[in-house]
Amino acid sequence: MTTGLRVALIGTGFMGKAHSHAWRTAPRFFDLPLAPTMSVIVGTDPERTAAAAERYGWAESSTDWRAVVERDDIDVVDICSPGDTHAEIAVAALAAGKHVLCEKPLANSLHDARVMTDAAAAASGQVALCGFSYRQTPALALARELIAAGRIGTVRHVRAQYLQDWLTDPEAPATWRLDRERAGSGALGDIGAHSIDTAQWLTGSAIAEVSAVLRTLVTERPTRTEVVGLGGIGDRDAPRVPVTVDDAGAFTARFSDGALGVFEFSRMATGRRNANRIEINGDRGAIAFDFERMNELEVYDVADEAGVQGFRRVQATEAQHPYLEAWWPVGHGLGYEHTFTHEIVDLVRAIAGEPSATPDFADALQVQQVLAAVEQSDQDQGRRTAVEATT
Question: Rounded mean pLDDT of the chain?
């Protein structure tokens, strides 16, 4: 590593913790062209932010993101705050000449996503990426390579599920993720967006049309009183607040190359902690993946002789598999946190001028256009709705 890269992280919650781990880990395992320095973490509460800085390894803390993004000693702004803050922070950081990494979905609205994408396009020599971290899962990166090489032939079907259960209990407390003003949408934008991005990235084809249904299954929840896991524990006697986002949804899709897609997403799928699944069927084979077995890829080849045909399990832990050159001996699997480390590796290499990393803001805008079409279709009682083309 040669010169430094001074980083400011905005947000101290779930994603702030994950990104902190990634910034700390990436330069210790990968040979990077630039040396990241964890300069400052920004939050809203001074005491909690100072505690996060000490715990996660940041040199200092701040509660003023505007002052931080203007600092001359900051090169990268990593945005891990709620969705309603993304556009303002990203546009200000780009205007200040910073590189930007922004958590997904890119924004709370299509308008804000466009503004951010335009700002990124106008920025000269700056990298702006969106954090769809599942792209950096080695098994999924391998799947993309196989599909691009024609191993499964022409894609006919895409079926994707992202199922969680942390809101199954109707007494689970309200969080900012259940407030449309803060989060933009519910399960659709939180986890459905991952499935949309993964499907389009793997197939190389954009979703062109959708027919959707969204549901809010619990319409009000108690306020949070104790934080335990993602959802926390609610107080049954505490004031209740309305849930203004979807809990679950599904949609069918037509891809631009004619493939048929079926998508389902829920944060109330009892028994499913983090079942992020995708299966892609082509005329020469198929590929299937489930993040709960993230080091495995299932591959089917129609060329196999009759009697021994079937999905074979590929352990994506070989040195030649994407990102694996820096990690463990063959067969020693990776975990959720490694996807964020790989995301930072791609970002740093892109800043250094190496081959462009993905997804950039334009890619994330396209996902936002699908999200908007899904919501519009639901409002129109499931009417087939075209996805606005990216211009």
Answer: 95
Q: If we measure between CA atoms, which residue out of 348, 368, 336 comes closest to residue 197?
A: 368
Q: What is the pLDDT of residue 234?
A: 54
Using the predicted structure, report yes or no on whether residue 354 has a pLDDT greater than 80.
yes
* Chain mean position to CA 203: 17
Express each pLDDT in 60-90 by its tens digit: 999 999 999 999 999 999 999 999 999 999 9
